Amino acid sequence: MKRRDFLTTGAVGGAATALASPAIAQSNPVLQWRLQSSYPKSLDTIYGAAEVFAKAVLEASDGNFQIQVFAAGEIVPPLAIVEGVQSGTVEMGQTGSYFYIGLDPAFAFGTSLPFGPNTRFQQAWFNEAGGNDLFNEFLAGYNIHHLPLGGTGAQMGGWFRKEINTLADLKGLKMRIGGLSGMILQRLGLVPSQIAAGDVYPSLERGTIDAAEFVGPYDDEKLGLSKIAPYYYYPGFWEGAATLSLFIGLEKWNELPERYRSILTMAAGYAGALQLAKYDAQNAEALRRLVAGGAQLRVFPGDVLQASYDAANAFYAETSAKSASFKTLYDHQMKFRDDTLPWLQISEYAYDTLLLQASQGAK
Amino acid sequence: MKRRDFLTTGAVGGAATALASPAIAQSNPVLQWRLQSSYPKSLDTIYGAAEVFAKAVLEASDGNFQIQVFAAGEIVPPLAIVEGVQSGTVEMGQTGSYFYIGLDPAFAFGTSLPFGPNTRFQQAWFNEAGGNDLFNEFLAGYNIHHLPLGGTGAQMGGWFRKEINTLADLKGLKMRIGGLSGMILQRLGLVPSQIAAGDVYPSLERGTIDAAEFVGPYDDEKLGLSKIAPYYYYPGFWEGAATLSLFIGLEKWNELPERYRSILTMAAGYAGALQLAKYDAQNAEALRRLVAGGAQLRVFPGDVLQASYDAANAFYAETSAKSASFKTLYDHQMKFRDDTLPWLQISEYAYDTLLLQASQGAK
């Protein structure tokens, strides 16, 4: 009875005969796309997520939708994904949306804002609070469609040659830190600079910089900074929920059969969730190795955090006055953050508190 | 050059001709499966995830892999998913794995253990630390294949007619709470009982029970308990990371083309991530309504949490001595929890602390 009802259901009954229909050729075309990452293969968790994504799309499409993944710079410059996608040089790119704040500060919302929602609530904002739709309305002006592709979780505050005991210690401190974060910390006297990952070690060793932030334990370990800048600070409040982005050429996206749009969306959600899980497992192991190797964990002093928060809010107010796109997304995301904090506090945070207390009691 | 390399790549070149090959008929067969949930449609976030999952599979398979979703009891009894899948009455089910601890306590690991890893690290355990593979080794003995399908996040501790000020207040307290949690709290003098959701309100009103736990604000709100049992406790340490499960008949799973196994795995990951995001957004709103309607938030006293933790550990030691399957999974999961707690503490927890402090400072 139930099975008979099922077979007579319009949509499903129709689909059951689809193999014989010419429509399948339309919904299952052979496509060859190129995806370039802004990241090198050495950042294997991030780059690997692009590969997991492409493989998932290939499998779901029965081998018909083929996305070849290229590392940073193989086709277009690492930070030229917007231009690459707009010109059609690549159909899609994996990038950090905040690399493009020079075009409009609203690009930051694809990644995360300093003091923005944590990773879980950032995902809820994207997927269930209309955040990604709103971001895509903004990106339509750049002919781009956006799919979040996982993230790193809360990052570390980076490596410092000397301890930071008070806000005054930031004055004149030369730090490798970019984007919005650098602009905010500059207001506190810090001197931000953008330095390629491979140059961080010699720059710290030579004293060209006094501190450097990168990602988290697993990726940071590869740079080997603990011996020359042993103070490893947390929390990395400027990237509390750093999300990776897939940028897709909007016309390419719109031309896709609906089925392929579903597959891309699903594969990005799937690959993104696996990426975060991989980072969590890897970071925990790397942290232990780093501490065993001499890294000194330090929490940022309260006055540094408070002043950074105030500076961020001042920066957001000024930026909202200048960019209507930024203001729309900022108001929407921060209302969601504030509306959801009480629930975070009594659920996840209370449970985490319990686990941490129990674990300390057990020692 | 790059494009030419791409076209001559073996795997991709082969796939490009797949449309003309008879192999596609094998990898893309028309299948009609039935999925029954253990949950009613009224738990729309959980039930909805099964629908999102089935729709994603339908779309990715171009309408060929059709999974019809049935609510609790429509084909087999709500808590008979194991038997339903084993007998082939349904090909798959959405359930809470811990409903089946009567068969073996190791079934609890599909859901979560009291004081087990939090939601994010539970997912990392499943997906990146070998947890789901280990769980599937156990489930193979029951002819079941398991895919995690999202979760609720940390649940609430439930509704109490009177405040709990000390451990002694649990003695003789009649509470609607089931499974492992009930067995653990029973050791502290609490009297657990299993009551269907629809009977919770009259049971509390009549005084048949003194307290009841259910899920979290969004689902709890529908039961309307705040007027008769206004003290709403947290954290729900017995379900700190409650995961939902897809149980699939192992032979059915093994018979699937590899492509369909990939699609099911991907769709479960995708639908699960959306479910958690939906709960986070919904719970935050429902919590505000509940508090406005008179619910009194209370944190469990320290001695209750400590005694529960000790009772849980004693229970786990005894259960490990009785069930080798339980011991294998328990040792594996708890090592992962303990190994990852330091990373949780300095990353997500430190960032959450900062957000909560900033928000309180702003009030």
Automatic annotation (TrEMBL), chains A, B:
<feature type="binding site">
    <location>
        <position position="176"/>
    </location>
    <ligand>
        <name>substrate</name>
    </ligand>
</feature>
<feature type="binding site">
    <location>
        <position position="239"/>
    </location>
    <ligand>
        <name>substrate</name>
    </ligand>
</feature>
<dbReference type="InterPro" id="IPR038404">
    <property type="entry name" value="TRAP_DctP_sf"/>
</dbReference>
<dbReference type="InterPro" id="IPR019546">
    <property type="entry name" value="TAT_signal_bac_arc"/>
</dbReference>
<protein>
    <submittedName>
        <fullName>ABC transporter substrate-binding protein</fullName>
    </submittedName>
</protein>
<feature type="binding site">
    <location>
        <position position="214"/>
    </location>
    <ligand>
        <name>Na(+)</name>
    </ligand>
</feature>
<dbReference type="InterPro" id="IPR026289">
    <property type="entry name" value="SBP_TakP-like"/>
</dbReference>
<dbReference type="InterPro" id="IPR018389">
    <property type="entry name" value="DctP_fam"/>
</dbReference>
<dbReference type="GO" id="GO:0046872">
    <property type="term" value="F:metal ion binding"/>
</dbReference>
<feature type="binding site">
    <location>
        <position position="213"/>
    </location>
    <ligand>
        <name>substrate</name>
    </ligand>
</feature>
<keyword id="KW-0479">Metal-binding</keyword>
<keyword id="KW-0574">Periplasm</keyword>
<dbReference type="GO" id="GO:0042597">
    <property type="term" value="C:periplasmic space"/>
</dbReference>
<dbReference type="Pfam" id="PF03480">
    <property type="entry name" value="DctP"/>
</dbReference>
<dbReference type="GO" id="GO:0031317">
    <property type="term" value="C:tripartite ATP-independent periplasmic transporter complex"/>
</dbReference>
<dbReference type="GO" id="GO:0055085">
    <property type="term" value="P:transmembrane transport"/>
</dbReference>
<keyword id="KW-0732">Signal</keyword>
<feature type="binding site">
    <location>
        <position position="155"/>
    </location>
    <ligand>
        <name>substrate</name>
    </ligand>
</feature>
<dbReference type="InterPro" id="IPR006311">
    <property type="entry name" value="TAT_signal"/>
</dbReference>
